[in-house]
Amino acid sequence: MLISLERSGGFTGIGKVITIDTTKIPQNQAEQLPILLECANFFNLPTSIIADSTHRDRFQYTITVEDQNKQHSVTVGESLIPGTLRPLIDWINCNYK
Questions:
Q1: Which of 23, 61, 73, 88 has the smallest number of CB atoms closer than 10 Å to its CB?
Q2: What is the tally of structural domains in the chain?
């Protein structure tokens, strides 16, 4: 499985991209990702969850997951991150700065 988390926007506009290949990380971490994705109902989320332009200084995240024969991307504004998706974003940010 390949997972990419791209952060853009924010006050300084400095972006960040984290890419994770589950075949190249410790097994215990690789086993956590499918659970986080399932809890987020990731593959059923809309491709875009964006705030209006009044939140220009907030971050925006694009998460892309490629798993076997399926691929899905979700772009979400920081103020609109669903509670089910936040644990995935936080886990990636905490483990792969």
A1: 23
A2: 1
Torsion on CA atoms 39, 44, 48, 52, rounded to nearest 10: -60
SS3 sequence, the chain? CEEEEEEEECCCCCCEEEEEEHHHCCHHHHHHHHHHHHHHCHHHCCCEECCCHHHCCCEEEEEEEEECCEEEEEEEEHHHCCCCCHHHHHHHHHHCC
Domain range for 63:
2-95
Tell me the pTM: 0.88
